[in-house]
Amino acid sequence: MKPAVRALLACAMFLAISQLSANNNVAGPYACNALQFHLGADTYAELRKAPEKAVNRANPLENDGEAVAAGKLLFSDHCAECHGDDAKGSRKAPSLRVPEVRNATPGTLFWLLTNGVVRKKMPAWSKLPEPQRWQLVRFLKSPETAPVASVDNASKP
Amino acid sequence: MLYKELSLNHVRISLVAALVLIFPGLYCPLQAQENPYFVTYDHNLEEPGNLEVEYFSTFGTQRAGNNFHSYWTEFEYGVKAWWTTEFYLDAQTTFHDSTVYTGFKWENRVRVLKHEHWINPVLYAEFEDTNGADKTLKEIVGHDTEAGFADANGEARREHKHEIELKLILSSNTRGWNFSENIIAEKNLSNEPWEFGYALAASRPLALKASANRCTFCRQNFILGAELYGGLGDRHSFGLQDTSHYLAPVAGWNLPSGWTLRLSPGFGLNGNSHRFLLRWGVSREISGFDQLVRRLFGAKS
Question: What 3-state DSSP class applies to B237?
Fold first, then answer.
């Protein structure tokens, strides 16, 4: 077989994997829209798995005046693609403007960002330096990402 | 005449590479946060559904032969948060000789552990379909030495290689630093012994906190580090004898526009190594490539 044909076959295989994974990425009843994604019973269960030591960690940037603004830019660069520009969620990932996230401690959110939920498509963000992850936590705890009360009400029958 | 043909082929391949890079520019870019390594892998995988298109070059000096410029394009796709697949196309130009396509590679990286640990293992498996003219030096294994790259392209490309390569990637992120260690085992499927190699790297951004304003020249956009890599012989003669080794400072620049630039001058550490390797690369990440592919095949968005 000619080298070019072999390369084309390998390329086709690569594209096929992309297509299969794309189908998987939107499959399931909770993928129809952002509001329904929110209703998955275990969507936020990972937050409860944070070890106590992590839960109790305080945000070292709690008093940093620029942390929220920097966190907002980081969110836009790394998180908005899946969680939406306004953090209300999308077909790929749940809303972050919910009481579960709001009530989680900064240490819990930091732990989740660091570890991700790699079996459920959320990557580990340990490649961001620690201060940047804490800046993201500040943004998630800021008034800009306060829970949207209407989400729950709107989706009730 | 030879020079004319050489430059035409070189220009053609460069144009194709440029088009491949312009294509992702039309789609949603993401500001990447990439380590600047050329040879060493860390445990940070591609985000699911994203495609990173990368172009890399290596200029190498050659004693008892002609200097060369090898280049490859990588398509790195995040299948899952724990699985990244990557496809390479390789070519090279040997000065005063010719420009040749040298083959393709297909690799997969799988994250083993669910959570982040002090050391994070990733398993790597690659299939290579290349010819003997391959000079990408993407990994150094076995008794790879400078003398093995001196053959003319016409002769070298007659050798066809089907190889599998396995790596154990160990990597840690701590206090802004990344430390990565790769243990490499490669086997030519045509009844040749397993060959071994290693790659070590460390890097750190110039600033750990992000700026509150979007900026091109902020210190957090620049990552500096170094790589050390080389061969460890084969199954019959494991060790450092007749092997080559390199030390290479690396620098990366993650631009807010979504582009990442990398540069690395590498220096041979013994008489078996190329004296000097200059590597550079440019990459861009496309978010939502999975949805793009779905639409391509007729799915509704």
Answer: coil
